[in-house]
Amino acid sequence: MTKMMLDNYSEKYDIDVVFANTGQEHPKTLEFIHNCDIYWGFNTTWIEAVVNPKRGVGIRHRIVDFKTASRGGKPFEDVVRKYGVSNQSRPLCSDRLKASSMKDYRRSIGWSKETVAIGIRVDEKRRVNKKAVEYNIIYPLVDLFPTTKQEILDWFDEQIFNLEIPEHLGNCTWCWKKSLSKHIRLVNECPEVYDFPKRMEEQYGTVGTKEGTGYARHVFFRGNRSVQDIFKIAKDKQAADDAIIEIISEDATNECGESCEMLPMEMV
Predict the structure, then answer these.
(1) Which of 60, 142, 188, 193 has the most CB atoms lying inside 10 A of its own CB?
(2) In the prediction, which pLDDT does 173 show?
(3) Can you point out the beta strands (E) in the chain?
(4) 3-state SS assignment for residue 34
(5) pLDDT of residue 237
(6) DSSP letters along 152-173, please?
(7) What letters, b where the CB count within 10 A reaches 16 and e where it falls short, cover 45-69?
(8) Measured between alpha carbons, how far is 216 from 39 in angstroms, rounded to an integer?
């Protein structure tokens, strides 16, 4: 999408390519973005969220690059430390780490009425935000260059580089938007990717909770599951078999699990 926009509209519009790094992206994602800059001249601005622990002070941003971008999750942990664990009812990761940091960046360069392009494809048009016009969102792969997933895969097969990440692993390896079936597979294939969310739940699970509500801790995963819950299900064949109906249901409805648009919470 970005290449098509730059190739066809850069002479007519000011296009700024921005990547908000959470510190928990797959290393191949960072390599991919770096290659886009090298081979296609995207000139991507790499940013990370800066969190002030003081109450009432919002997210700011800092400029990083391929070499200095966090690989250990510092921006993510800073957000969790202040705001708490992110999950389906509190999508703080996309809001604070991406939308808010990008908003602060755009403010810093004097932009206030920009249009945001999101890479939803024509074959997933159902995911288009109903308030897209109101929020100045466009979907080039739906309206300007109608493109399907297979067409994108075929196109990348002809390029000098590719993303090189298995689809079930994705850019955000342990993302809470993924279905239970994907988590079960990942726990058995690469359990180490859950080290970070496990530590976040243990250290900051009570951040943002209200006394007297009966809800003691926040956890990341759908169905009010913790990392520990996911591991128990994945390691217990009978438990996994018992969850098969739920797994099928989640896979059927979890269309947003394929990607994560940087929309603030009030826009989702």
Answers:
(1) 142
(2) 92
(3) 18-20, 45-50, 60-64, 116-117, 137-138
(4) helix
(5) 66
(6) HHHHHHTSS------TTT-SBT
(7) bbbbbebeeeeeeebbbeebebeeb
(8) 50
